Structure formats: C-alpha cells, structure tokens
Amino acid sequence: MNFGIIFRLASGFGFLAVSRSMESRGDIHALMGDRQGALNMHLAALFMLVLAALCFITAGLKIMRGSKKTPPSRNTGPAYSSLAKSDDDTGFDADAALARYLENRNVEGPEQNEPQPPRPPVPPRTGFGRKLS
Predict the structure, then answer these.
(1) 63 HSE (CA, 13 A, CB side)
(2) Nearest partner of 37 among 47, 22, 50, judged by Cα
(3) Per residue in 50-79, pLDDT tens?
(4) Which 3-state string (H, E, C) describes the chain?
(5) CA-CA distance, 19 to 31, in Å (whole number)?
(6) For residue 46, what pLDDT is reported?
(7) Phi, psi torsion values for 76, nearest 5 degrees
(8) Using an 8 Å Cβ cutoff, are 54 and 91 in contact?
(9) Which of 73, 68, 78, 26 is nearest to 47 (CA)?
C-alpha cells in the first residue's frame, strides 16, 4: 500500500475525531445558552467533517485507480537476450529428444505385466455418519 493512501486515511480519521469533539463542545455551549459559541463550534465541526470526507474520497480514488507504473516487459534486458535466439541457433532438437525418451522409457521402467497382490475385501458399510451406540 502506498504511504499517501495511508496518510490520507489516517488524516480522515483524525479529522473525524476532531469533528466529534468540536460538535460535543458546541452542544455544551448550546446547553449553557451561548448560541454564538455553539454556532462557531458546530461550523468548525462541519468544516472538519468535510475535510475528513475529502481525505476518505481521495484515498478511495487513489486505491481505485491503482498504480500508474506499468510493470516491465518480461522479455527485455540482457538476461533474456539468449532467449531471443531461434531453436536452430541452440542446437536443440525436440523431436530427437522425444524419440530418445520414448525408447528409454520402457527399458528403465518396471514391467507392467507383473501380477498385483490381491486386495483385502472391504467390509460393507452399515450406515452413514457418526456411529451411535
């Protein structure tokens, strides 16, 4: 995750906490009869709430857009220069390798005609689920 996204989210939660605090102070001023103080605190709380919303919206947009950086191409650079050569340059013949494999497969492997030992009989199931006694 990007540091900018984390910073915006943390700022949004911070502005949200300050907004709640200012709103509660405005409520206290209203109870004491100070209408001007209550109005000032509620307007400041509203401003902090708008800042918190902007932080959350910009963080969300940044997450949705994702990274603008494109990943490097797989087949670029000096490490892949040998892969760019054709098969004729490397001297590898796939058909010959497959033919060698098919010839040697039966020579090295065990015989398939050996008799298998008989399997023990499986007892029949009496029911499904947990055994009740």
Answers:
(1) 12
(2) 22
(3) 999 999 999 999 888 875 665 556 666 655
(4) CCHHHHHHHHHHHHHHHHHHHHHHHHHHHHHHCCHHHHHHHHHHHHHHHHHHHHHHHHHHHHHHHCCCCCCCCCCCCHHHCCCCCCHHHHCCCHHHHHHHHHHHHHHHCCCCCCCCCCCCCCCCCCCCCCCCC
(5) 18
(6) 94
(7) -125, 160
(8) no
(9) 26
* pTM for this predicted structure: 0.48
Sole residue written with tokens 């390798």: 97
What length does the chain have?
A: 133
Spatial CB neighbours of 26, under 8 Å, sequence gap ≥ 6? 37, 38, 39, 40, 41, 42, 45
Tracing tokens 């020579």 back to the chain, one arrives at 107
Task: Quick: pLDDT tens for 6-43.
Answer: 999 999 999 999 999 999 989 888 888 888 989 999 99
Query: Are 44 and 22 spatial neighbours (Cβ–Cβ below 8 Å)?
Result: yes
Asked if residue 18 lies in contact with residue 48, where contact means CB atoms within 8 angstroms, the answer is: yes
